[in-house]
Amino acid sequence: MGGGFLARPLFVMYEGGGAMHPIELARKSAALGSVKDAQRVYALAIQQSSDPRELLEAALYILQSGGDYRISYTCLRNMYNQGYFCEDILPVMIEAFYKPNVRELKSRYERNCRRLKKYPYLFRKDFPSFEELPVLFFPYDDHGFVPYYPDRQRFGDYINFNNPVISRNFFKDLEKPILAGDVYSQYELEYLHDTVRKSEDVGRENHIYLHYTEWKTFCACLQCLNMRPLLDDQKLVFLIEDEITRYPIDFRKEFGIDYSRYSVKRFGVHEINRLIWHTQLSAHNGGDFFNEVFDSHPNLLSLPSIMMEKMQEQIQALADAMNGADSLKAAKEIFRDWFPETVEELYLMKNRSLKDVMVAAYLNTNMAVSGLNWSARIAPAVFFQPHFDNIIYMLLTDSKGNTVLDAPPLEMLHQTPLIQGFKYIKTFTPLRRFTTSHAASVKFMYEFSLLRQKQVAEGENVTVNVVSDVISERVFNRSFMIDPEDRLYKDSILVRFEDGKLNPKATFTALAAFLDLPYTESMLYCSEGGRRDPHPVTKGFDTAPVYKTYDGYANESERYFIEYFLRDAYAYYGYDFHYYDGAPVDEEKLETLISNFTVINHYIRLTWRVFFEYMDLKRDDGQPISPEESAEAKEEVLETYVKSFREKRLHHARTLMSGLRFINKNGQPLRMMPMLKPDPALLEQPLYH
After folding, report:
1. Among 163, 416, 470, 574, which residue's beta carbon has the most beta carbons within 10 A?
2. Cα angle vertex 291, ends 342, 488, to 5°?
3. Which residue did the predictor score with more confidence, 433 or 284?
C-alpha cells in the first residue's frame, strides 16, 4: 500500500444521471473551483465511505485546501493506525502538524531538563537528547496532543495535559506522605503541589512522592509539561523506576532536615483553592442528607445549604468592609472576631478576590471548621451548596428541535467568582426518584404556604407563597444533562439518594474517592456543625425516606406523566418504572392524563385562593361590590386560572414529544452526567431499582 495512489488524478468529472455519491460530488465541486462546497462534501464522504483511497483523497483535499484540519488529522491518524498508506500519511502528518511545532517542543523539553538537573529531589540526571525521546507529540489543538510511538509505528489517543479532571483518589490515606504513580497531567501535578502543605507548615515530613515506572516515558512528557511552577518550594520528590524503594525518605538522616522543629501553621487563605460544589438538581433530592454526611469532615470547610443570593450579599459586604479599612489595625478592629492571621493575610493580599473573602469567612465560622484537622497534610476544600427557592428551566427550541436549557440561577452560578474563583472544582449532584421528589416538593410548598398564611394573619410582613405547576417544572428540568464545555461540570458525578440511604458505606466510600477525600469516621453518621442527627424525623441513615411516596400529594396520572417524559433518565440512572407501563403515548393519552391532574390542581387552587382573597374587586363604574359577589367573582377567576394550566401542559407535552435534541449554546450535544457506582465489595443491600 504505498505511493502508487498519489499519482492517480484526485478529481474526475461526474457524467451521467442518477444519484451522485458524495465522493463524486466532491470531485465535481473541486474541479469547478467550489472549494467550500468540495470541503463540505469531502467531509461527508469521510463519514460515509469505507474505501481507504477515497478517505485519503478526501483528507488530503480538505487539508491542502485550508479546510477544517481536524477532520483531515483524525482521518489520517485512523488510517495510519489501520495500516493504510502509512508511507504516504506519516510524511504528511509530520510536515503539516509536527514540524511547525517541533522547535517549541524541543525548547520546552530542554528548559525542563535544565531545571530538573538542578533539582535536589530528582536523583537521576541522564536525560536523553531530544532526538532520542521515544514519543513524538503532534499538537492537535490549543489544548492537547496526539502521541506517535516510532518503535510501534502507531499513533496514540488524544492527550490534554491540562484537562481539569482529578482522575484518582490521591488523598485516600493521609497517614503517610502522598505517593502517586505516573502522574502525567499538568493539572493534577499542580493540584497536588497546591493542595499538599509544605513540610515546614505541618511540622513533619510531607513531600509529594511521584513515582514514574519508565524513565524515558517521563522524559518524553517533559516536551509538554511545565515544571517551573512545581519546583521552587521543593515539595516534590521524584522516584524513577526502582527508586520506589526509597519511599518515604528519612529527610533528617539523608539531608539533615528535621521538620519536627517547625510548629503547625494555620491554614492560609492562599492555600485553599479547591471547591466541592454540591449542586441543587431540584428541590427535595436529599441535599440536606448529603450535607450532614460531609459535615465535620477533617478535610472540609463545610456549611449547610446557603441561599445563593444571601451568600453573595454577605461576602460582598465583607469584601466592602475589608476594602474600606485604611490600615491593618482598622481591619483587625472591623474583623475582631476573626483570627488575626487571616485578617492580616487578607488585608495584605494583592488582587484580593471575592473567592478569597469567602474562604476567609469559612475559616472563621465555627460551624464550618467544627471538624477540621488543622494539622492535616492537605489544605481543606470548601464544601458549598448554593440554594435557590426554585430552579425553573425554560426550553429554548428552534425549528429543528435543537433545545437549550436555560434558567436564571444557572447564569448566576456561571458568573459568580464565589465558584469560578476556585482553580480546582469537583461537582456532585444528588438525585432522588423523580416522582418521590415531586410529591415531596408539593407537600413542602403547600405546608410553607400555610405557614406564610399564618404569619400574615399574625401581622408579619411576609410574602404569601403558592404551589406552582411543579409537574411542568419537573419534566422541563433536565439539569442531569450537562454541557461538555462547561468548566463547572468537567469533573462531575451524580449520586442517587437511594444508594446513600440503603448502602451508605459503599456509596460514600466511592463518593469520597471521586471527590479525592479520605473516607473518615465523620462520614459514618449525620451531623450539622458537629451535632449528631440534627433532624430526628429523618434520623441519620434511616431508610424510611426511600420508600415514602407522599401519596396525598401526587396521583397515578401525574406520576405516569413524569415517568414517561423522564424515561431516558429512569433508564440511564437505574430506576424502574412504578407508574408508567411502557405503552406508547399519543396525544389522546396525554389529554386523559392531564385531565386527571387533580391533586396538583387541588393544591394550586388551595394556595391561590388565599392569594386571590387579597384582590380588591370593583364594578365597572368603580363602585364596590358585595362580599357575596366578590367571593363568587374571585372563585370564578380562580377556576379560570386553574383551567388555564390544561392547555399549557398540553402544549408543553407536545413540545417534549416532538423529539428534542438538547444542545449547549454552541450547538454541542449535552450528555448525561455520569452516575456514581457504589463500591460493589461494600454493598450491604441490593441496589435500588
Report:
1. 470
2. 75
3. 433
- Structural domains of the chain, count: 3
SS3 call for 303: coil
183: left (phi over 0), alpha (psi -120 to 50) or beta: beta
The DSSP-derived string for 470-533 is: HHHHHHH--TTEE-TT-GGGTTEEEEEHHHHHHSHHHHHHHHHHHTT----GGGGS-EETTEE-
Classify residue 283: in a domain, yes or no.
Answer: yes
Residues 296 and 175 in one domain: no
Question: Does position 576 have pLDDT exceeding 70, yes or no?
Answer: yes
Whose cell is 445549604? That residue is 305
Helix axes 86-93, 69-81, angle to 10 degrees: 140
Q: Which residues pair with 624 in a beta bridge?
A: 618
Spatial CA neighbour of 132 closest among 116, 115, 150: 150
Q: Quick check: is 667 in a domain?
A: no
What DSSP string runs through 98-120?
IHHHHHHHHHHHHHHHHHHHH-T
Summarised one tens digit per residue, pLDDT across range 81-97 is 999 999 999 999 999 99
Could you tell me if 258 and 333 lie in one domain? no
Beta-sheet pairing, 531-532 with 527-528: antiparallel
User: Which cell numbers in the block locate residue 539?
Assistant: 434520623
User: Is 629 inside a domain boundary?
Assistant: no
Same-domain check for residues 64 and 206: no
Structure confidence by residue, pLDDT tens digits, 126-176: 999 999 999 999 999 999 999 999 999 999 999 999 999 999 999 999 999
Q: Cα–Cα distances in Å, from 488 out to 70, 277, 583?
A: 26, 9, 38
Model confidence pLDDT, tens digit, residues 448-462: 999 998 998 899 998
User: Do the Cβ atoms of 674 and 484 come closer than 8 Å?
Assistant: no
30 grid coordinates: 473541486
b/e map 38-75, b = 16+ CB within 10 Å: bbbbbbebbeebeeeebbbbbbbbbbeeebeeebbbbb
Q: How far is the CA of 503 from the CAs of 286, 294, 436, 680, in angstroms?
A: 15, 16, 19, 10
* Rounded distance between C-alpha atoms, residue 445 and residue 461, angstroms: 19
pLDDT at 166: 98
Cα–Cα distance, 544 to 435 (Å, whole number)? 16
Residues 330 and 428 in one domain: yes
Q: What is the pLDDT of residue 371?
A: 95
Structural domain boundaries, residue 324: 270-435+485-547
Per-position DSSP letters for 535-598, written without gaps between them? -GGG-TT-SHHHH---GGG--HHHHHHHHHHTHHHHHHTTPPPSS--S----HHHHHHHHHT-H
Backbone angles phi, psi at 274, to 5 degrees: -115, 135
Strands 402-406 and 394-397: antiparallel
CA dihedral (633, 637, 642, 643) positive or negative: positive
Q: Do 230 and 160 share a domain, yes or no?
A: yes
Query: Are residue 215 and residue 128 in the same domain, yes or no?
Result: yes
Task: Give the model's confidence band at 610: pLDDT under 50 very low, under 70 low, under 90 confident, else very high.
Answer: confident
Instruction: Give a yes or no: residue 305 inside a domain.
Output: yes
> How far is 47 from 294, CA to CA, in rounded Å?
48
